[in-house]
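A note from the maintainers: we've had questions about how concatenated examples are separated. There is no special marker in the raw files; a new sequence line simply starts the next protein. For clarity in this README we add a label.
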Amino acid sequence: MMHNLNIITKKINDKFIFYDKDVKINIEELFLNDTFSSNETKNVEWINNNKWVKKHYFRKGMMAFMKDLYLYKTIKHTRSYREFEILNYLYKAGFNTCKPVMGWVSYGGIFYKANLITESIPAETLSEYYTHKVNSYIDNKQEEKLFIEIGKQIANMHLLNIFHGDLNMHNILVKGNIIKGEKICVWILDFDKSMKKKLTKKDRESNLKRMKLSLAKHEFLSVSSYSKILKGYDSIISS
C-alpha cells in the first residue's frame, strides 16, 4: 500500500474527508456548505457546472446485494482513499489522468460508503470516440496513430509501477479529431482496485490482455488494433 504524506485526512461528523495538502481551495468549507456531500444515489454525476465528476462507489457481481456498503477497517483501506492516492501520485508524476479534488467516506457501525471527486476531462471514451469517428472513415495510418498513443500511455503507467484494476475501452479517454489531423490526447482513468507495486512481466501482460479482450468486444475493431497498441507500448518500454 502507498503511504502519501501529502494527503490530509480529517474527521467531520460521521465522515472522513481527504485531499492533497497543496490544493488551492478550502475543501473543508466546501464540504460543509455544499449539498453534493449528501447525495449518494448515483454512481457517477457531473457537478460544479460540469467541472468536476463525483463518483459514489457501488458493489458489483456477487456482492451487488450489499449495494454501496463496504466493511470498514481504516481510512487508508477504503476504496475512495486508495483510488485518490493513486490518482494523486500519477497526476503529480505528469501522467495523463484526471486530477483528484477530494474524497470522503461516511461510516456507521462496521460499514462505510465511499465517494471521490475528480476534475472532469472534456473528452470521449475510446469506445465512444471510435464509434463516432468510424462513421467518417478512419484510414489505417490514422488508426495506427491513435492506438500507438494509447499503447504509449499504458507503458507510461507501467513505468510508474501502477497495475490497473480494469483496463478497458471505457476507462480510456480520447480527444482530438484524428481525421482532421488534430493532435490526439489520451488519458487513462478509473483506478479503483488498482495498485502501485513492482510490476512483473506477468502483471504487465495481464493488463494488456484485459485491454485486448475489451477491444475484441467492439464491432469496429480487430486484432490489428491491439498490435498497434503493442507497437506504441514497446516503443516506450524498450527505450
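[label: protein 2]
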Amino acid sequence: MSTKIWRGVFSLCHAILLGVLFLSFSSCGPFINKFGFHTKLIEEAEQAETDGKFLRALDLYEQCLSGAQAGEIHYRMALIYDSKLQNPIGALYHFQRFLEKMPDDPRAKAVSKDVKRLRLLVASQLSDGVVVSRADAIRLKNENLQLQTQLTLLRSQKEGFRSVLSKSRNAQGFSTNPITQAAEKLIGPETRTYKVEKGDTLASISRKFYKTSQRWKDIADANQNQLQGTTHLKVGMTLILP
C-alpha cells in the first residue's frame, strides 16, 4: 500500500514539474516555432507598420534577424527604409543582406536593380548632388596637379620680381625707377612696404604692423636679399611686409 502511495506522489510531482516548465517556456519572450520564425514579434511588427509606426516596426524586426527567416526580415526592413523613411543607406544595407541570404529568391532580380539605384542615390547625396565617374575623378585630379604646378611657378616668379624691386629701391629710389614700377605692378597693390627708422628692429616692426613680435621671422624671410641672413637694419632701408 505504501508503495502505491509513493508512486502516486512521484507521478503528481512529475506532472507538476512538467507543467511549470511548460508555463515558463510559453511565457518567457516571443514564441519561436520549428522554423525559427519569431511569430509574436513578427505580428507586432506588421501591426506597427500598418499603424504607421515604422521605427517601432524596424525595432521589432531587428529582434528577429537571428531566426531562420532573416533574409525575409531584411527585405521587409529594406522596404520600410526605402519607401517609408526615404533612407537610402538603410535600404541599401538591408537589400544587400537580403541578396546574400536569399540569392535565388524570385525577388532577387528586382532587388538587384534597387541596389544599383540606391548606390547612385547615396553617391549623389555624399557628393552634394554631383555624381563623378572614376574617369572624371582621375581627370580632375590631374588637372588639379597641373594647377598646383603652375601656381608654384607663379609664386617663384613673384619672388623674383620682389627681388628686383628691392634692389631697384636701394639703388635708384622707388618713384623714378621704371624697373621698380614694373615690378610693383606685377607684385600687386596689396604688397606693403616700410622704411626703416632709427631704433627699429624686426621685432618692433612686427609688433607695429601685426600686433605681435612673433612675425619678425616672416619679415626677415621676405627681405632676405637685403638682410643676407642677418637681422641688422639700416636707417632708410625699405622692407617688404609679407
